[in-house]
Amino acid sequence: MSAPAETLCGAFQATAARHPRLVALRTPADAVAITWREYAARVRRIATGLAKLGVARGHTVALMMGNRPEFHLVDTAAFHLGATPFSLYNASTPEQVQDLVGQAGSRVVVCEQRFLPQVTAGRAGTAVEHVVCVDGEAEGTTSLAKLETSRLRGFDFEQTWRAVEPRDALTLIYTAGTTGAPKGVELSHRAMLAAVAGSNAVLDVGPRDRILSFLPAAHVADRWGTHYSQIVTGMQVTCLADRRALLPALVETRPTVLGSVPQVWDRLRASVDALIQGEADPVRRSALREAVELGVQVARHGRQDEELWSRYRALDEWVLAPLRAMIGFDRVRVALCGAAPISVETVEFVNALGVPLIEGWGMSEVSGLATMNPLDANRIGTVGRALPGVELRLAADGELLVRGEVLLSGYRDDPARTAEVVDPEGWLHTGDIASIDEDGYVRIVDRKAELIVNAEGHSISPTAVESAVRAECPLIGQLAVIGDRRPYNVALVVLDPDAVKSFARDNGLPEEPETWAADPAVLAAVEAGIMAGNERLSTVERVERFTVLATGWRPGGTELTHTLRLRRAPIAEKYAAEIEQLYSP
User: Fold this and answer.
1) Global pTM?
2) What are the start and end residues of each CATH 3.40.50.12780 domain in the chain?
3) Average pLDDT, stretch 33-37?
C-alpha cells in the first residue's frame, strides 16, 4: 500500500489514477458527467491557463459560483499551482466582494455570468486583473473554455504540484461570526487531510458512495464534505445548482451519504409528517404512524427489546422502506447534521424512518468537523466524540477547547486575532460552552457570548429554545429569542417563505404574501407551534409572547450571517420597538 498523500494535490492525482473510468462529478440526470480521467485532464488544462494569467504559489484566487462541476475543476486546478482558492458567498454585495477580494489580494476572480455585476462593481480598489467566466463569453472577461486552450511555454504541471507543501494554505474560509469584521480562516493541506482522515474513520466513505453538493462552497461544510473528502475517497458528487430542487434531486441521485443543516432535516420531518397525514389508506396511515412511534423507541433505547425490534422491522419492510424509496432515501447509509443545533425530536424522527442520522460538531477553525457520533454507538442529543487526532478539554468556565492538526494555520494576516483564540499551548478556544461525559460524548450548551441571563439570574440557552420551537412549527424560518435581563422570554418570528406559501394555498388564504404575517390562521399555527415547543422546555425557558415580522432576513444581511447564524446584537437594536412592545402590559 502506498504512503498517504501529504497534500491534496497528491491525494487528487492518486484518486484519479485509481478510478479513471468512474464518474467523479455530475449534475442531475447526467446533464453533465465527468470521469476522474476527464477531471484530471481538465485540472491540468485549467492550471496551465491560470498560470498564464500569473497565478502562482502563494497567490489567492476568488471563486463565486453555485454548486456546479466547474467549482471543483477550478478550485482543484488552483491549489495544484500552490495557490489558495476561496469562495465568496453568492449573496455578497459588491462592497462585500471588494472587501474580501481586497483582503485576500486576489488578482484573478472566477465566477458565473450572473455574478458579474457584483464582481465587476466590486473590482474597484482591488488588485483584480482578470475575471474568468465559467459559463460563457462576457465583455471584459476570459471564458473558461478559452482559458483551457491556453499554452504556456516552459510550464511543468507535474513539477509545480509536487512542489506544493503540506503547510501551504489550501483555502480561506471567510467568517464574520455574529459580530466583527470578516476573518480569513487559513487552512493548510495538512489540516484538511487530517480532518478528512478523522471523519472518514467514522463514515468509511469510498468510490462507490454518492453525495449531493448543495450547500454554499464558501461554507467549510461543503468544502470539507463534498470537495476535499471526495478528492481523498473518490466518492461521486452530484452538484445541485438550485437548492429548491433538492427533493427531486434526492430521488434521482439516491445518495448513500447525505449531510445537511438542521433546517433541511426539520423540513424533511414536516414533509414526511404531511405525507403520513395525507395517506388515503387508513390501514397504511395507521401502520406508518405505528412504525414511526416504534422507530423512535428503537432510536432511544436500541435493539435490546427483541419484541419491539421485531415489530419495527416488520413495519419497516411493509411501509417505511417504500416511503424511503419514494423520497430518495432508500440508499442512504449515513446522514450527518452539523453547523447548528438540531432538536432531539427531529434526530429521533429521521432515525425512526430508517435513515441513520448522526450529529457532529465543528467550525471553520477546525477544518470542518472535530467530533462525530459513531454509527454503531449514536447518542442522540450529543455531537459525538472527538475524531481521531483531535484532543478536547473544557476550560474552567465550560468553554470547549480543541487541539490537533486540524486547526487553522491562523487568521490571514491577523496574528493578533489568531492569538485571541489559540493559546500558547495550541488549544483553540471555540467560544462554545459544552459538557463532556465519562465516555467522551460532547453536548453543546450554547455560544459563550449568547447565553441569556434573565431577571431572576437563570442562565438560558436561546439556541436550545429556538431549536425546540422550530422543530414544532414548520412555518417558522428564523426565530430569535430575547430575554437577557428580562422577566420572561419573547420571540421574533420570520416565516419560511416556501412553507407559508404552501400553508396559504392549502388553507385558502389571500394570494398576497404581504398579508400572511398578519393572517389569523398563520398566527394561530405559529402560536400552536410555539406552545408545542414550550412543552419540551422548562418554565423559565418558555416563550411567553411573540410577534411575526412581515419582512424576511437575508443571509449576509443585518440579522443573519451567510451561514444563517443570528446576529443577536444587531437584531436587538433594529427591532427594539417590537421587542419593547412584547414586554408592554
Assistant:
1) 0.84
2) 8-256, 259-330+332-447
3) 98
